[in-house]
Amino acid sequence: MYILQAQDIYKKFNSTEVLKGISLQVEKGEVIAIIGPSGSGKSTFLRCLNRLETIDRGRIEIQGGIMVENDAGGRAVYSSEKDIARMRQKMGMVFQSFNLFPHMSVLENLMLAPLLVNKADPDQARETALALLNKVGLENNANSYPFELSGGMQQRVAIARALALNPDIMCFDEPTSALDPELTGEVLQVMKDLAMEHMTMVVVTHEIGFAREVAQRVIFMDEGLIVEEGKAEEVLLNPCQERTRNFLSKVLMAR
User: Helix (H, G, I), strand (E, B), or coil: what is residue 112?
Assistant: First the structure.
C-alpha cells in the first residue's frame, strides 16, 4: 500500500491554472525528487499535499486516510478536522526560508510543536529535541537564537523541528535555494542521512547531483504537468522528453 497518494490534482490561482491534473504515488521509504523550472507548479503541489493550499479538484490520501477529495463539480469531501490534523502530523515540512521563531531559542523551536500539538511531557520533549539536534550536528547550539546561526545551521534546525513530531513523510521545498553554495552541503548531508535511515521523502530541488545520488525516482514538472517520471538514473542521464533534456542541459551548464 502506498503511504501517500495524490490523484488528478488541479489548482488555480485566480484565472491561472498552476496544477493541471498531477498524480503521485509514494511508497514507504522511497525518496522522490521533483525538478523543473521556476513556475512549473512544484512548490504549489508540495503545499497541496500538506493542505497548506486547498485543491480545486482531486484526491489526497495519507496512509489510506482521505485528507481531501474534490469532485469535478467542485464539491469537497473532507475528513473531520481532527482526522485532517492527525494526518498532517504524519507529514513534516521544510521550507526554503527556514521559518524559525526568532524570539525562541533553538531548543524552544524544537519543543514547541510536541508540547502544543502532542501535549508531550516537557522533559521528554526536551530529551527528544536534544537528540534531534545531535542528529543534525547542532548539539552545542541548543541555547542559541536563529539570528546567531548561519543559514545552513538554521535550515538544519528547521529539519530537526520537522522531525520532532515523528512524521512518516518528510517534504522539502527547495531547502538549499536560500543558501550560499558552501552551506548547501551540510544540509544535503542531513537529508542523505535521513534517506539512509529509509525516511520517506518528497524533495523539490534544483540539486541534480543530490537527486541522482539519493532519489529512487525523479519527476520533471513543467507548466503544471508531469512531463517525465522514472528512475533517477534514467530521467537524469537519458531523458526521453526533449523538454527534460533542454532543462537539464541548462541546469548543468549553469553549474
Answer: helix
Q: Give the largest CA-CA distance in the chain.
A: 55
CATH number for the domain including 179?
3.40.50.300
Domain range spanning residue 228?
Answer: 28-51+88-254
Whole-Å CA distances, 158 to 3, 75, 133: 23, 36, 10
Task: Report DSSP state, residue 12.
Answer: E
3-state secondary structure of 184: helix
Q: How far apart are CA 98 and CA 153, in angstroms?
A: 10
Beta-carbon count within 10 A of 39 CB: 13
Q: How many domains does the chain have?
A: 1
Give 150-204 pLDDT, tens digit per residue.
999 999 999 999 999 999 999 999 999 988 888 899 999 999 999 999 999 999 9
Pairwise CA distance, residues 45 & 34, whole Å:
10
Within-domain flag for 150: yes
- Identity at 120, one-letter amino acid code: A
Q: The pTM is what? A: 0.92
CA dihedral of 193, 195, 199, 203, whole degrees rounded to 10: 110
Burial-class residue 168 by CB neighbours within 10 Å (0-12, 13-18, 19+): middle
pLDDT in tens, 127-148: 999 999 999 999 999 999 999 9
